[in-house]
Design goal:
The protein is an alpha+beta fold. The chain has 5 helices and 5 strands, in the order E-H-E-H-E-H-E-E-H-H. A hairpin with a 5-residue loop joins strand 4 and strand 5. Helix 1 packs across helix 5 and helix 3 packs antiparallel against helix 5. The longest helix is centred in the last third of the chain and has 19 residues. The protein is globular.
Length: 134
């Protein structure tokens, strides 16, 4: 969980409920959901076991386009993704790439600072809605 540029937030809910809450919050916020990938189900179909591990791929052209206008290579990291996973102790986490890390990775300059800040605030708010009661 100490991967550079990865933000992780402990969830008060199980994996499925955390992902369902995240998907609902994304839809309310106007994001397009491109895919929801259940890695544990995929492992099961191959006769293997994997703790709950699910990725959601989502985006919004208003958020991503300014970043790609600044440096098109960031398109390899867009649309955004979030991972909901259960650790060996049974705790559930929501993880995502920090926008500032993506910006640094792709050499985005100061012209992208406002877009990066907006994405950071949005992702933190979504993680809060998905992982905490209230």
């Amino acid at each position: 969980m100490n991967a550079p540029g990865l933000a992780s937030k402990l969830s008060a809910f199980g994996a499925k409920e955390t992902m369902d809450r995240l998907e609902a919050a994304l839809k309310v916020g106007g994001a397009t959901i491109f895919a929801r990938i259940d890695h544990a189900a995929g492992a099961g179909s191959a006769g293997m076991e994997l703790r709950p591990t699910e990725v959601i791929v989502f985006g919004n052209p208003q958020g991503g386009t300014p970043l790609m206008q600044a440096e098109q290579t960031i398109g390899i990291d867009l649309p955004l993704k979030a991972l909901v996973w259960q650790d060996a102790a049974g705790a559930v986490w929501l993880s995502y790439n920090e926008p500032a890390w993506l910006a640094e990775r792709h050499g985005l300059g100061p012209q992208a600072a406002a877009a990066v800040a907006a994405l950071t605030a949005m992702l933190r708010a979504l993680a809060e809605k998905a992982t905490t009661a209230g």
